């Protein structure tokens, strides 16, 4: 993940959330699969601490 000099590897923390923190439901109200919801849940979030 390091792409620039001066960014230390230990500055990054990896925390997989998987099914624990979805941003959208994987199923529709009728119980059928919702591909758009599953697509929204496939994501990477970067949080950059300031201090």
TrEMBL record:
Keyword list, A-Z: Membrane
Superkingdom in the source lineage: Bacteria
Span of domain OmpA-like: 1-51
InterPro entries: OmpA-like, OmpA-like_sf
Keyword Membrane: yes
Cell membrane listed as a keyword: no
Gene Ontology cellular-component annotations: membrane
Composition skew (Basic and acidic residues), residue ranges: 29-45
Region (Disordered): 1-51
Protein's name in the database: OmpA-like domain-containing protein
Organism: uncultured Sphingomonadaceae bacterium
């Amino acid at each position: 993940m390091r792409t620039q000099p001066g960014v230390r590897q230990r500055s990054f923390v990896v925390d997989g959330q998987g099914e624990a923190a979805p941003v959208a439901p994987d199923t529709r109200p009728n119980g059928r699969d919702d591909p758009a919801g599953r697509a929204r849940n496939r994501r990477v979030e970067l949080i950059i601490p300031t201090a």
